Sequence to fold (351 residues):
Amino acid sequence: MAASDRQAFPERVFSGVQPTGNLHLGNYLGAIKRFVQLQERFDCIYCVVDMHAITTWQDPKELAGQIREVTAAFIAAGIEPEKHIVFNQSQVAEHAELAWVFNCIARLGWLNRMTQFKEKAGKDRENASVGLYAYPTLMAADILAYKATHVPVGEDQKQHLELTRDIAQKFNNDYADSIRAHGHGDAFFPLTEPLIGGPAARVMSLRDGTKKMSKSDPSDYSRINLTDDADAVAQKIRKAKTDPEPLPSEEKGLESRPEADNLVGIYAALADVPKADVLRDHGGAQFSAFKGALVDLSVAKMGPIGSEMKRLTADPGHIDRILAEGADRARGMARETMAAVKDIVGFVRPR
Ligand code: AQP
Fold:
């Protein structure tokens, strides 16, 4: 058992969303909705990870609006910035500073295995940014700057979370003597637990049940955007790819039917019930009828969030104040971690 498993760290949640535009139902069900639920049990820090966003080109004319839109989505969904912390990453310089230390901890072999880099860089790997390659070390810094013990994410981020644990473990091992000498016990960083699961851990494209619903999919019909109005939601769900069979009555019947599985998963996550309950109620139905029920449920659940996002983004000054206030509180915590890291590593700093 590792020292960091034995040592108790206060429970804290951290997670982030990139402001890369087109915030969608997958981001909501896989991440933001769960951020809201976790507020009851944990101290939470939710970050708009704008430095991650620029690992791929972002138009400077759009980026500020995208940052405010993610912030608005957090708040419209029910995140409480007064009780918890909401801020954008670039306002807290310690994320980049700690990421550099982690670049010196992580091994090339570890990063070479990251499937997200392979997928995003595609065939033109030589032309991908160094930032895109180093994305997971910055993500580890985001999490560990606050010694977060739990990170709610979609399935696609699982590998990056494992890398965060590897970095924490190696830092704890490489600097074990110094960590003890500076009075931090057996381990300085926790081994963070991913919180992944539920029927929407991986929401798939509405056009192809084998592809993840994604902001960067060129087809707007592949996803439901959080700002889509009721007509757009209805059109996208009605046009969603399906197969000719009626819905099965049991989960086993969804095997090898990715599109059916996806729509049932979306319904279950929106209704907060297991997939088995959805199939019990809708088993035997044709897709035309089930899609109608899914449209009604989606509009009922997502409509108020979209409207509230529009209301909030109409007042950018208010959003900027929330982010500045959150950044002040986050910075206080991250500075403390970074000062200790500098001591542990052996840097000289003013006292
Ligand atoms: N399809 C999805 N199903 C469930 N969860 C998802 N997430 C993303 N897509 C799905 C989760 O949403 C959170 C924020 O994601 P992100 O914006 O930081 O990055 P991403 O995973 O790269 O999101 P996209 O939408 O897929 O963007 P692009 O197209 O730019 O790659 C994360 O917790 C993520 O797991």
Residues 76 and 305 are 5 Å apart (CA to CA).
